[in-house]
Amino acid sequence: MSEIAENMAACIDELAVQSVLARYCHRCDDGDFAGLVDLFTPDGVFTYGDRTAHGRAELLAFFQGTQGRPDQRGKHLTFNLDVRPDGDTARSVSDYVFLRTSAHGPVLRLAGRYHDELRRVDGQWRIARRDVINLEVP
Amino acid sequence: MSEIAENMAACIDELAVQSVLARYCHRCDDGDFAGLVDLFTPDGVFTYGDRTAHGRAELLAFFQGTQGRPDQRGKHLTFNLDVRPDGDTARSVSDYVFLRTSAHGPVLRLAGRYHDELRRVDGQWRIARRDVINLEVP
Amino acid sequence: MSEIAENMAACIDELAVQSVLARYCHRCDDGDFAGLVDLFTPDGVFTYGDRTAHGRAELLAFFQGTQGRPDQRGKHLTFNLDVRPDGDTARSVSDYVFLRTSAHGPVLRLAGRYHDELRRVDGQWRIARRDVINLEVP
After folding, report:
1. Which of B61, C44, C70, C88 could form a disulfide with C40, with the two C-beta atoms 3.0–4.6 Å apart?
2. Phi and psi torsions of B32, nearest 5°
3. ipTM topping 0.90
């Protein structure tokens, strides 16, 4: 491909990856865990501190355990997306905030960074690995 | 159009829609209500709970009523944009947070989701409908 | 260039600028000040209220002074990006929030707007000027 064609293909991929990461938040916060897990590759990995879920069955169990009850849920917000596509794979670094709502309005609960690897499978970008690194008290 | 050309046209539209939604926040928070209302189609609809504004005169009155005084204003922040262009229309789902500032720093006031329909009119993307769904205490 | 080719070039530039602004936040929050300052042009300008840093040596001193200790740092989050490329320059308006973490979770500290000018130098977009305007109590 010419350089301009390569750059344009990267743009298309970058926006597609942005949308996948947006849907991750929407589906998680809606409690749509089947839809959430479908955003991962079948062998997808999710790590959170010392916990790891590997494959869709473990991912489903993880999200149902941590976000299953409405009072566990809130809003996951993703920012500062730096997506780097490379053929049929992509890496993304972004920041996130998780808030819950309360009788007094929304309350910040967590902030951290997502380190993601994505893979194009049958023309669809899916999350192959997400590592969550929470911001710690210095 | 070829598939690649279609995908590229969709990229251009997706970024243009992202900019419209960014300007919505900027103009609202700046109190530029004429500019804000200009981002809507002439028959634009905005719903917020059980309130509906229909057309630019009602939109202007709505925003002046809810955001008219400086102490009513703050920052509208938009995240997790999932924009799906389809010819001269587009749908977008995103999350939002509204914060106000205080003597003690910024304070979260609201969080919710925007469900948007946009339309291309004379080459410009405009908001044809925005439904605001606030996050509720579970 | 044809109109479609121009629009596509603008898309590529817009996404490249978005990535630069994302990396600004990542590097600042990671305390990678050499990497942060490298995102600016050699004559880059940064203003924050009545303080101005001009050129990489002053930029480095500014960031080391305000973000040098881990307890000064947190997360810079950027939203509502409205990037307008124009040849080898671009303007961007965006909103930002800065939060720090505490034993009780993340705490909002600042919110404001970034007014940026970027320049393409040797094929790389760099920040030529960033003016930070904080949200004030009305």
Report:
1. C44
2. -90, 75
3. yes
CATH architecture of B3-134: Roll (3.10)
Q: What is the pLDDT of residue B8?
A: 87
Phi and psi at residue C74, in whole multiples of 5°?
-170, -130
CB-nearest to C101 from A4, A83, A137 is A137
Residue pairs between chains B and C whose CB atoms are closer than 8 Å:
75
Q: Which chains touch A (3 or more CB pairs under 8 A)?
A: B, C
Write out pLDDT tens, residues C41-84: 999 999 999 999 999 999 999 999 999 999 999 999 999 999 99
Cα distance between residue C30 and residue B132, in whole Å: 35
Contact C109, C117 (CB under 8 A): no
pLDDT digits (tens, 9 = 90+) for B42-68: 999 999 999 999 999 999 999 999 999
Which of A6, A12, A80, A98 is the best mutation test for B, with the most CBs of B within 10 A?
A12
- Residue with the two structure tokens 């920041």: A95
